[in-house]
Amino acid sequence: MLKRLFFKLLPIQVLIIAMGSINSIVDGAIAGRFIDAASVGVVGLHYTFVNVIDAVGAILLGGSSILCGKYMGRGELEKTNGLFSLNLSISFIVGSVLTAVSLLIPRPLARMLGASPDLESALVSYIRGYGFGIVPLIMSKQIAMFLQLERKSRIGYAGVAAMILSNIVLDVVFVSLLDMGTFGIAFATSIGNWLYLLIMLPYYFTRKAQLSFSFSSIDFSQTWPLLKTGFPGAALIFYLAMRSLCLNIILLKYAGNDGLSAQGAFGMVCGLIVALCLGIGAVVRMMSSVLEGEGDREGIRAVMRTALTKAMLMCLVLAVLLVLLSGPIASVFFSDRDSNVYALTRQLFIIYSMCLPFILLIQVFNNYLQALGHHLIVNILSFLDGFLSMVGPSLLLAPSLGALGVWLSHPIGMFLILVVILVYACIYNRHFPSSFDDWLFLRPDFGVSEDDQLEISALCKDDAISASIRVQSFCERHLLPPRICYYAALSTEEMVMNVINHGFSADSRSHQVIVRAVFSDEGLLLRIKDDCIPFDPKERYVQLAEDLYGKNIGIRMVMRLTDDITYQNLLGLNVLTIRFRSESPSLLV
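User: That's the sequence. What structure does it adopt?
Assistant: Structure tokens below.
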């Protein structure tokens, strides 16, 4: 189930990350073909500012993803809703400030981005046009993440499709027909961003939404945890922006406008290519934070195995495709295949493709360590990955090798970062990592011991009966009171059978139920997960309160047998948590 969930979550995460790059690719292609080659460099220069915007949004996105995952894993739904309202409030305020900067002081900003005198005016126009869409750009990424938590990713897909289509059409209209230049290219992107937001936002004004915005529910106490938790991932994007600025300066000095334009074209496409690696890392972060909240060591193992095997295979296929398509991609921006700028661009794509598997490894461990709270090493890795590992080698190699020296800094930097991760693993484990668990960086006391937990998969009615017997045996082995042993077994059979009878037949897809029993000093915790359509037994129980007693006897009985029961739809899974406390008085049916 976790493997399937991993790849269900991946597409929207890739789209969230690739959104800015998709817009830049469209803008760059239109600029190169309808304006001039230098305009591609203008879009490339502005991409540094796009990275700054993404860095600000990533603080909120990363922090909210991790904290929401932990809160939902613990069943703390009120905190999740407070964080939702806080996130959207900060997103709007920060987006408004960045919009004001873009519209009021674009010329100083253009100079900060490294524009030469002949490119400054074009960049100023682009900054102004882009500024109108910063607020929806930041907010839409946040809402897309929350929609994913509520299993509403299709709304996000519709928004992305509308945004891309409108950007392409309006780019052609504004530039080719209305001759609006770089301002028109950027303004088309802004309109697409607003369209994306307006398609997703209405969901949160419906009763179906689990989360809702209100000023009274804003939990300001979570501001510092949100910023602290999200900063490492955001710092990486900020460092990338600073790296881009430094590399642009180095390329202008040692490779001229051709080197800058090649880097600009690569930067636009790179965001789309690396989105797969970053998306896989984001899924690892999201799922690991939930599983960490649940104390599920085996679940974390399954997520990391999936990321390092099947997801790695996807990355290798992408690397091969990038080599094969390096020429056609370069020609999208520079149609003259005999030009120096075309050769430099293709050369960069080929070198970068060899780094993709190593980029994935770095992103998986960086996001995983962030989810587990290893803030120091994550900040170190972010600085190395985002800035020093490339700028350092570029400064050394560019004077003698020109643009090639900058291109070669990619594999050199990846190697240095992987060495740092290995050193940290040795320090954390106090020995050279020799097993898969050594790479999980989990505390020895994390979760519960193997003897104190039981996990069962159910695919049919016979499995429900078998799960009931195994849960009862598990309880008896831990010397729980007979009442708990019997009630836990009965609840397991009733709820699993209910999912199989009603959830499995709701559509044509195959489904699975996972039962996890955990023993502690407080008693027994049962967590029942399934990947069927959303169904809240507690809500159904309330609806049945005035019905005849003969209906839905199973749900009624379980509600009266348990000491505490909570439901949430988490990452597209129905999660029912049932608690039986050892010291609780007997409950009567």
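The first strand starts at residue 453 and ends at 458.
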